[in-house]
Specification:
Chain lengths: 319, 654
């Protein structure tokens, strides 16, 4: 090659490398750090995403973290993304971190999430008219426990999930008292024990969730959620109170990314934007671990093997 | 442990103090009785009394972190720690980091553990330590356990070194000790979650944060034991050192530290135990391994698997405890001059031969290198069946017990605590303090309780106090008789102490699930979990107290024809009471730690707020709440230690 052409080629090449589109720029060789939490679908999904990044030639590491504190870590770049941002559970923490800066919304999954009062199937025979909330309220006494007296007990999630159940009970004038469990494990332990005793129970639950595979049940149908229900008293069945509605029946499930990810690992970042799971896929991932007893890494392998058509297009630009 | 800082007054006027104290207590009762007539400011801390400590702390932290740039320093330190963890992580489970030669086959590590056990304590210890690692490998937990170990192997030496240096400084400079002591007191009574929040802020998440939180938690006992050991060195040793013309450094290196060897090694033992106690909690901020796995499994209610991990943690703890204790009490062996080197280093040679065999095996048989999860053995089905059986058996009893306790005891008790005017509580505590330790103790109690009132968390603190009160009473009702029963013979005592060790190191999160299944999400479940943990020190110290009664006194009682009952009630128990009091004190401390963890069941006390602070990474709030808990503990600690010291003096023991 003549010197001139060579220079031109190098110039073109480096221009391509520096191209702002980033599509052709190489990803950094530093590991991408993915946080995992203590529920199986998130761990498997993190490993699926991690393995996709590895297929693209990146190195990946996982750290286990608290699911609320993680947004602070993403913001500071200690971990680089989050694959499951639930509207209901983590919307507040996510928005707060968003306001402080350092992380951003990396798109929604196809999956919709719902978090609502829920009861196991056998309760339906005992309390006719379910899943309607007024029917539930009529059998409130059935759900009473020693600590709630004659009122029914609703077993809520941990207080830091900020579900405003007590406000809803108040606004809708229900004969219920909210008792907050301290962790998801405590919720499932109670559900398990209640089923054993064939005792009526109504508790906080969400979908997609592994528990659906073990216990059948339904969400309570509250007055539908509408924009402004949480701030404006005038809407809803009670004209004088806020929170007189259920939770959104189709909440978002987002991905979040550290601001620096885009420049440091452009190809992986693009893949992250493309990635989108459905409810069925998420339930499948949870099932692989919680029912089939695979390890999360194995479950991720298995899922990738069975769903090649799904993930191939996500990383097509990078390989 | 606090009393090192608070010297007992030279002249005790117990009679007068008693009377003044009683009068103050009566005043407190009158205050409570006159509640309707009291101004609001005496019922609940008035607004002007509550100070925004949390804001001040947050402001200070922000200043330290951003304006002074402390965060760069802490992050740099953390990076250093991470570099070390990467090395051990590579060696132990083959993480892709320098030096990239791991993972070491499990057989090699198990053989090494066995030989170390043999060297320290003969065949039994060899069997225990080798067996532990075989269990881990066979149960398919190798990688998780090595992830845990990779952090502990780094954290323990760092904690020991830090503790040793701080201990030396404290021993050398009394002024430093005077500053250090209260800090240590608080550090040792602060709930774990409280200092996890600043660690997240300054260090971040991941194994390094896990290591650093473990170091912070494990160092205080090391400092204390070092100081204790150095102070106990007899002057004769120093004099003989001086006569040999040693320099100050030589004196320290060859006379003081070796003489204090036993205490220092007991400190090392404490560091190891504390590190293992942190395995599960540290996984909240990114410590990998057994703890992380355990929380995941519990989340999916897989009890059997969780119990397997619990057993591994207990086995590791007991192995490391027994080995380090054997090391502490073993005196150095000296060989005769002219012993050939292969006799002197016999064990080393045997070890080399054994690991050579293990490496060879691992090279040819993959199972000797790594046992895959799929090939592993599991007992989870059996454990699950066992838990189910227990639940079915206990369920009718607990269901009845639950409503009885809630309706007749807990709700009234909680209401009573909440009803009390805060001024009456403060007066009452001052009175108790005066009765036990005079004006000084009254002031100490008032200061601690006053600070809690000023923090603005009075109501929450009273809920914690009510749970602790009830839990401690029940722990005593179970632990004391158990201890008395176990102290009757050497054999029983050994078994009981082993059970105590197990209960203490078994990860408490595992109890939470069956407790919730039996009692439901309420205070009974939370208190139940606290009791399981809290009765351990009660039982342990009762055994130690009763077995520590001088045999001459028992003989004397025998000779005067005392029956077994008389001996117990009039000789042994009174003499053991100071030690038992230390046990009660420890029970309070353990219960305070556990009540915070019981927030994961669902409580409405300080623990619940602590959980919120952790998820919001609110340093100020977390520390204020933590300090409230710590102050409660320190107040009880002060009173119990004071009482026990006076009592010992009066009995002429110790």
């Amino acid at each position: 090659m003549r010197p001139f052409a060579k220079a031109l080629a190098i110039g073109a090449l480096s221009a391509a490398l520096m191209a702002p589109t980033g599509a052709f720029a190489a990803d950094s060789s530093d590991p991408i750090i993915i946080p995992t939490h203590n529920w199986s679908s998130q761990i498997v999904m993190s490993h699926v995403v991690g393995k996709l990044f590895e297929k693209m030639g990146n190195s990946v590491e996982y750290v286990s973290t608290d699911s609320q504190a993680v947004y602070e870590a993403v913001r500071l770049g200690d971990v680089h993304l989050e694959v499951e941002v639930w509207e209901g559970a983590f919307g507040v923490a996510f928005n707060e971190a968003l306001k402080k800066g350092g992380l951003h919304d990396a798109g929604d999954h196809d999956a919709v999430t719902r978090e609502e009062w829920w009861y196991p199937a056998y309760v339906e025979e005992k309390c006719p008219g379910l899943p309607d909330w007024e029917a539930l309220n009529k059998c409130a006494e059935m759900f009473a426990t020693p600590e709630t007296g004659s009122k029914g007990r609703f077993l809520g999630g941990p207080v830091d999930w900020l579900k405003h159940d007590a406000e809803r009970v108040e606004a809708l004038g229900m004969d219920f008292k909210v008792v907050n469990a301290g962790s998801a494990s405590a919720l499932w332990a109670e559900l398990d024990a209640a089923k054993r005793r064939n005792q009526p129970i109504v508790l906080f639950n969400w979908t997609p969730n592994f528990i659906e595979a073990i216990h059948e049940g339904k969400f309570i149908e509250f007055p539908a959620y509408f924009e402004g229900c949480k701030d404006d008293p005038s809407g809803g069945p009670n004209p004088n109170a806020t929170y007189d509605c259920g939770n959104p029946a189709n909440g978002y499930l987002k991905k979040a990314a550290w601001d620096g990810m885009k420049d440091k690992w452009p190809a992986a970042y693009q893949a992250l934007l493309n990635i989108s799971f459905t409810n069925a896929q998420i339930a499948e991932m949870a099932k692989l671990v919680d029912i089939d007893e695979l390890e999360p890494e194995e479950a991720a392998e298995a899922w990738l093997e069975d769903n090649e058509d799904t993930w191939k297009p996500w990383i097509a630009h990078g390989v | 442990m606090t009393d090192a800082a608070i010297p007992a007054p030279a002249i005790a006027t117990p009679q007068r103090d008693q009377r003044i104290g009683q009068m103050i207590v009566v005043a407190a009762v009158l205050l409570a009785a006159a509640k309707v007539a009291l101004p609001d400011g005496l019922i609940r801390p008035p607004d002007w009394f509550v100070l925004p400590f949390a804001d001040w702390i947050n402001w200070t932290f922000a200043f330290l972190k951003d304006d002074l740039g402390l965060i760069y320093l802490t992050r740099a330190f953390a990076d250093g720690v991470e570099w070390l963890i990467d090395i051990t992580a590579n060696l132990l489970y083959g993480k892709n980091r320098w030096p990239r030669i791991g993972p070491i086959p499990w057989t090699v590590i198990a053989v090494t553990a066995g030989v170390v056990g043999y060297a320290l304590g003969g065949w039994r210890l060899a069997l225990l330590s080798g067996g532990t690692f075989v269990w881990i490998a066979v149960m398919g937990q190798w990688e998780w356990a090595m992830e845990t170990m990779s952090v502990i192997v780094v954290a323990v030496p760092l904690a020991v070194a830090l503790g040793l240096v701080m201990g030396l400084l404290a021993w050398r400079y009394p002024r430093f000790e005077a500053v250090l002591n209260p800090v240590l007191n608080i550090a040792q009574s602060l709930p774990h979650f409280a200092y996890m929040i600043p660690v997240v802020v300054f260090i971040g998440l991941g194994p390094k944060a896990g290591a650093i939180v473990t170091i912070i938690f494990a160092t205080p006992p090391m400092i204390r034991m070092t100081v204790l050991g150095l102070k106990k060195v007899p002057p004769e040793v120093i004099e003989s050192g001086q006569m040999c013309g040693s320099t100050r450094w030589q004196l320290l290196r060859h006379a003081r530290v070796p003489t204090a060897r036993t205490e220092i090694l007991v400190g090392v033992n404490q560091v190891i135990m504390q590190s293992l106690a942190m395995v599960v909690l540290a996984s909240f901020i990114g410590m990998p391994g057994l703890g992380e796995k355990l929380l995941q499994l519990l989340q999916a209610l897989r009890m059997g698997r969780s119990i397997e991990i619990g057993i591994t943690i207990v086995l590791l703890a007991i192995t490391l405890d027994r080995c380090s204790k054997a090391w502490a009490y073993r005196q150095p062996v000296h060989f005769e001059r002219g012993t050939p080197w292969w006799v002197r280093n016999k064990l080393l040679l045997i070890w080399l031969a054994l690991i050579a065999v293990a490496f060879t095996l691992a090279a040819f048989i993959p199972e000797a290198h790594e046992i895959k999860r799929r090939q592993a053995f599991t007992l989870s089905k059996q454990f699950d069946a066992g838990v189910d059986w227990m639940l079915v058996l206990l369920d009718p009893i607990t269901l009845a017990l639950r409503s009885f306790l809630i309706v007749w005891i807990l709700v009234p008790l909680q209401n009573a605590y909440q009803w009390l005017p805060f001024a009456a509580v403060l007066t009452f505590l001052a009175g108790i303090g005066w009765m036990i330790g005079g004006a000084r103790s009254a002031l100490v109690c008032l200061a601690y309780a006053g600070l809690i009132a000023m923090s603005g968390w009075w109501d929450r603190a009273m809920i914690t106090a009510y749970m602790i009160t009830f839990a401690v009473i029940i722990s005593m009702m179970i632990g004391l008789p158990l201890g008395v029963w176990a102290s009757r013979s050497e054999g029983r005592a050994k078994i009981a102490l082993l059970i105590c060790d197990t209960a203490q190191t078994f990860p408490s999160f595992i109890y939470l699930i069956p407790v919730v299944m039996l009692f439901g999400v309420n205070d009974v479940a939370a208190i139940g979990a606290v009791i399981v943990f809290g009765m351990v020190p009660m039982c342990r110290y009762t055994i130690e107290g009763l077995r520590g009664v001088p045999p001459e006194l028992i003989e004397a009682a025998d000779m005067s024809g005392a029956t077994r009952r008389q001996k117990l009630w009039t000789v042994k128990l009174p003499l053991a009471l100071p030690t038992i009091m230390v046990g009660i004190n420890q029970t309070v401390m353990f219960s305070l730690f556990m009540v915070i963890i019981a927030a994961f069941i669902g409580t409405r006390d300080l623990g619940q707020e602590m959980q919120r602070a952790l998820s919001a990474t609110d340093v100020g709030k977390g520390l204020v709440l933590g300090l409230c808990v710590a102050f409660m503990g320190l107040m009880v600690d002060h009173l119990a230690m004071r009482w026990s010291a006076d009592r010992k003096k009066a009995l002429g023991i110790d």
